[in-house]
Design a protein that fits this description.
Shape: extended
Number of strands: 0
Strand content: under 5%
Radius of gyration: 19 Å
Number of helices: 3
Largest sheet: none
Distance between the termini: 60 Å
């Protein structure tokens, strides 16, 4: 029986790790939604906020290795868009408080 080995490129490897980190950030968001940002999971010593922050830092590290950078103008534009639709959600009675 012949076994074939598929080797990844550095880019493929880093994209895989980036995907995993995105999923870990998503999981931490879900835990924070379900249990609150200040909750500390039994047997852990960090709050959900601290754990989310750590996962986000891991995500940024991998993005940096991929050469992804932050465009401050794009970030500010996204913040404005989030605020705009946050106001709309509040008008609809979905969002309880202002962003």
């Amino acid at each position: 029986m012949v076994k074939y080995i598929h080797y990844m490129t550095k880019e493929q490897y880093l994209l895989t790790v980036l995907s995993e980190e995105c999923n870990e950030v998503g999981q931490r968001c879900s835990k924070a939604i379900r249990f609150g940002m200040n909750e500390t999971q039994p047997s852990k010593d960090q709050t959900n906020f601290e754990r989310l922050s750590a996962e986000f830092q891991d995500l940024i590290a991998v993005a940096d290795l991929l050469g992804l950078s932050i465009d401050s103008e794009r970030v500010e534009a996204k913040k404005r868009k989030i605020e705009k639709y946050g106001k709309y959600s509040k008008e609809l009675g979905i969002l309880k408080e202002n962003l």
